[in-house]
Design a protein that fits this description.
- The complex is a heterodimer of chains A (518) and B (678).
- Chain A is mainly α.
- Chain A is built from 22 helices and two strands.
- Chain A starts with a helix and ends with a helix.
- Chain A has one domain.
- With 678 residues, chain B is mainly alpha-helical.
- Chain B is built from 31 helices and three strands.
- In chain B, strands 1-2-3 form a three-stranded mixed sheet.
- Chain B starts with a strand and ends with a helix.
- Classes of the chains: A mainly alpha (518), B mainly alpha (678).
- Chains A and B meet through α6, α7, α12, α14 and α17 of A and β2, α5, α6, α30 and α31 of B.
Chain lengths: 518, 678
Amino acid sequence: MPAFIESHLLSWIIFLPVVGIALLLVAPRSLIRPVAMAVALLDFLLSVLMLRGFESTAALQFVESVNWVPQFGIRYALGVDGISLWLIMLTTFLGPVVILSTWESVTSRVREFHVFLLLLQAAMLGTFCAQDLVLFYVFWEAMLLPMALLIGIWGGARRLYAAVKFFLYTAAGSVLMLVGILYIYTKTNGSFALADFMRVSLTPGEQAWLFGAFALAFAIKVPLFPLHTWLPDAHVEAPTAGSVILAGVMLKMGTYGLLRFAIPLFPSAVEQFAPLMAGLAVAGIIYGALVAMVQRDMKKLVAYSSVSHLGFVVLGLFALTPESISGAVFVMLAHGLSTGMLFLLVGAIYERRHSRLIADFGGLAHGLPRYSIAFMIATLASVGLPGLAGFVGEFLVLLGSFKSGSLAHSHTFVALAATGVILGAVYMLWMVQRVFFGPCDKEENQKLTDLSLREVLVVVPLVVFIFWMGVYPKPWLSRMEPAVVKVIETHQARMAIQDAAVSPANDAVRFVENGEER
Amino acid sequence: MHEGSPAEFLRWIVLLPLIGFAINGLLNKRLPRAVSATVGVGSVAGAFVLSVMAFLKLRALPADERVLVDHLFSWIPVGELNIDAGLMVDPLSACMILLVTGVGSLIHLYSVGYMAKDEGFARFFAYLNLFVFAMLVLVLADSLPLLFVGWEGVGLCSYLLIGFWFQDLANSAAGKKAFVVNRVGDFGFLLGMFFIAEKLAGQVGDGNVLGFATMAAHPELLAPVATVAGLLLFLGATGKSAQIPLYVWLPDAMAGPTPVSALIHAATMVTAGVYMIARMNFLYVQTEVAMGVIAVVGLLTALVAATIALVQTDIKKVLAYSTVSQLGYMMLACGVGAFAVGIFHVLTHAFFKALLFLGAGSVIHAMHHEQDMRSMGGLRSVMPWTFRTMFVATLAIAGVFPFAGFFSKDEILYKAFLESPLLWVVGFAVAALTAFYMARLMVMTFFGENRADANTKSHLHESPLIMTAPLMVLAVLSVVGGWMGWPEFLGGSNWLHHWLEPVFAGVGAHGAEVVGHVAGATQGVATHAVDASHAADALHTGGHSVVTEWVLALASLSVALGSLWFGFTVYTRRQSVATQGQAFLGGAPHRLLSGKYFVDELYEYAIIRPIGWLSDNVLWRFVDAVIIDGLLVNGVARFLAMIGHVVRILQNGLVRWYAYSFAVGVFAMLIYLTRKGG
C-alpha cells in the first residue's frame, strides 16, 4: 500500500466517506448509487488493510496525532486497539451491505439519502478511532444528526415523533458527558487526550458523579433499561437502512463508550456501581425479552430483542473478567450481524407487503423458501444456537461473569441473565411460527416473491460471517484479547494505587490479592 | 483417563452426514429422488462403517488405553479458558456411535419407502442427515461445550423435523414447544457448566476446563460443586430425555413423520441426557443428593408415563409415553450408580423401540395416515411382517426372556433393589404396566375385526421390502441385542459391563458404598474397594446372593408374562374397544389419565398465560408506556425545558445551548422542507 495511505490509514478510513459525499454532490443522478457503493466497498478494503496490518498486542496501533486546537490542547488523535478494530470492521462491512439493500427501496431524495449514510459512517468510524475526548465528542454528536434525518425524512408514518425522541433522548445524555469531560480537563495539564485523562487521580466522590454523567450518556445509547423507550419508536419508524445501522453499529457506541471511557477512567466508581449496572443489564435482558414476546409488529419485536441482547453486553463489561469482556465485545459483533440481518429481512418483506404485523402473515415458508431459510438462520443466530456467532459471545459473557471475583452476586446475576436463553427462543420462534408456518391462507401473501439475486447478495455475506464467527471465533478473540486484558489490568492497577492512597496498610495485601486472582 | 491415541479418521464420522446434509440441503429439489436417497442413506451408512472401524481399533487396544482422539482446532481460547473442539471415542462413545449410525442407517433406509411420495423428500433427508451429524458431535465431543453444540443441534433438528409438515400449524407449534421446553433444560445445563468451569478455571494447566479428561482428572476440585452442578446438568437431561418436569414436549413431538419419531424421539436423541449423565459419572459419584434425585425422578417418570400410556388411543402416543417411561428406567439406573446398566438399556431400548415406531409407521402408512387404534384392528393377516416383528419388539419391551429388554430391565431392577427395595417395588409395577399397555396396543392394532372405513379397508397392504427389511433387522437385534449383557448368574460373561468398565472406573467405589449402605456391610469393604472390577464383584457378592438375582429375575419374567397374558385376555374378549379403558378404570381415574394428569393445562394456566399477561399488560402497556415514557421521559423533558427557560433568562451564553438550538433549528428546517417537497 502507498506510504501516504499507510501513514494515515485511519484518517483515510474515516474520511473516505466524506470524499464520497463530495463526489455524490456532483455525480449525475444515475451514478449516485454506484458511487456510494464504490466508496463503501473501498472503505471496507481499506479497513481490511488495517486488519492485516494489525498486530495482536495491547498497544494502540495506526496512531495519528497532530495539534488541532492548540490553545485548548485539543488534538486530532486517532488509534485502534483490538476492541475498536472489530467495531471498525463491523461498520465498514455493513456499509456496502446497507447501500445494496436500499438499491430499489429508496426512491425519493436519493442523493441526500446516500450523503447522510456516508456522513453517518464517517462519524461512526471517527468515534471508534478517537483518542482525544473532544474529537470523540465531536464525532459522537456528528452521528446524531444524520441518523435523526434518516429517520425523520425517509421514515414511516410517525417519523417526526420518533426522530425528535431519538434526538432529544440521546442529546440530553451527552450534555452531562460534556460537563464531565470539561471537569476532568481542568485537572489535566491542558490536554484532552485519553491517555492524560487516565493519569488524573479523582476522589471516589468525584468518580461517582463523573461516572454517572458518562454512564448516563452511554446507557441511553445502549440502551440500558429503563432508558430504552426511544429505541422501539426509532426502529419502527426508521427506514430499513437506518434500522440496520442503528442496531448494527450505533447501539454499540454506548457499550463501546462504557468500555473505552467509563470503565478505565473511574475505577472505584466502577466497583461501586457494577452491581447496579449489572442489575439493570439483567433487568433489561428479561424485560426486553418479555416485552418482545408480546409485540405485534415484527420490527418492534426485533427492537426489543436488542434491549435484551445488549443487556448481555453490559453485564459482561461490568463483570470485569477477560472472558466476560471479550464475550461482550463478541456479542456486539454478533448482534450487529444477526439483528442487522433480521432488520434487512423484515425490511424486504415490508417492501413487498407494506405490513410488518405478524398477524398479516402466515405460511410464508411454502412460497418463499430462500427468504424463510435466511430468516431462520438469522433467528437461530439471534437465539444463540451453538455453532453460530451469537452463542460464543453469550456463553463467554455468562461464564466470565459467573466466575467474576469483583462483581458481587455474580451467580445470581448470571442465573437470571441465563433465563434470556429460554425467553429468546420463545419470542423468536413464536414469531417464526406465526409468520412462516401454517397454511398460507391470506391472498396478499400468495403472490409475494422470494428474495431476488440482489437481496441474496445482501444476505450471504452476513450468513458467512455468522457461521464463521460461531465455528471458528479464534481470529476475533485472539486479536481482541490483549486489549481486553489491558482494560482489566489498568483497572486493577488504578484501584491498587487509589487504595494505597486511602490506606497504605492495605496496599501490599491488595496487590497480592490481585496478583493471585488474575 | 488415558490421554488417547490419535485417530484422524474420526472427523469423517461426523463430516459424512454433514456433507450429505449440504448436498441435499443445497440442491434440494433439483436432485432426482434416487440421488437424494443414495446420498442420505449412504452418508450415514459410511459413518457406520467408520464407526465399526473405530470400534475394532478400540477393541484391539488394552482395556485401560481404549481412547481414540482427534483434536480438531482450538475453539474458544480466551482468558483462563481454552475450549477445544476435539472428538473422542472411548468404550462408551463407541457404543453410542454404533447405535446412532447403525440404527440411523436402518431408519434412513426405511424412510426412502415411507417418504417416497412426499413433496419434501430431499429436505427430509437433509434434516435427517443434519440430525445424525449433530448427534455424532454430541456423543463424540471431548468436552461439555462441544457436547452442548451437538445437544442444541439435535434440538434444532428435532424442531425442524417435528414441524416438517409445517403447513399444519399444530405441527410447528409442537416443534416450537419441544425447542422451548428443551431450552428450559439448557438453562440448567449452562449453569451446571459454569459451576464446574468456575472451580477449574486457573487450576488446570491447559485451560480446557470443561474437557472430560480434564474434569475427570480433578475430581477433588469438583467435589464442592458436585451436588449443585450435578442437579443443574440433570435439569438439562430432564429436557432432552423427557423426564419430569420437562417431559411434556415428547408426546407432542409425535407430530413429526414416524421415522423421525423412531430415530430422534425413541432411539437416539432422547437418550442424550442419559448419555451425558453417564459421561459425567465422575461428578455424580461425588453427590448422593443428585444421585438420589435422579433415581427418584427417573422412577416417578417411569410410573407416571406408563399410567398415561394405558389409556392413549393414538398408537404413536402410546409409544411416546412408553418411551418416556423407559427413559425413566435408564435414569433410575444412573441414579443408583449403575451407569453401565443405564447405557445397556439405552442400547436395547433403541432396538425394540425403533422397531415399534417403524412398525407403527408401517401400520399408519397402510391406514392412510390414520393413527387412532380405535379405527384399526385385525391387521395381523394383512401385514404379517409388520405384525411379527412388532410382536418380537413387544416381547422385548415387556421383558420376556431371552429377548433384549429382559436383560437390561432385569439388571436395572436388580440394581434398584440393592439400593432400596422400595425402588424395586415401583419399578416392578412399571414393568407390569408396560407389558399391559403393549398387549393393549397389539390387540387393538392387529387382532379382532378391522374397524376402518371401507375405502381404507380396501387399500390395506403390507409395506414394501425397503420398509420391512429394516423391521426384520431390528427384530433380530431386539432378540440378540440383549445378549451382550448376559449376566453372570445365568452363565454369561456380561460383556458390555466389562467393555464399559474403563469409563466407569471411579464408580465401583460408589456402588460398593451403596451396597454397604443397604446391606449393612462393613465400611471396610466399601472404602477399600479401589479397583473397579473388585468393586463390581462386591456388588454381586456383597450381602446379596445369586439367589436374590434368581428370585428377582423370575419375578420380572413372571410379571411380564402374566401382564401380557392379562392384557391380551382383557382386550381380545371385549367388544367395544372405545369404552374398554373407561369400563376397566372407572370414570374419574380414566379422565385423569386420558387428560395426561392435566400437566399441560397446569403449565399453560400457571406459567405461560400469567407471563404473557404480565408482559403485555403490565410491562409493555404500563411500565414502558405510562411509567417510563409518560412520567420519566416527559418529566425530564419538562425539567430540561424549565432549565432552558432559566438559562435563556440569565443569558449566560453557554455555547452548548446555542449549538443545540442551532442543530434543532437546522433539523426543523430540513423537516419542513422535506414535508413541503415530498
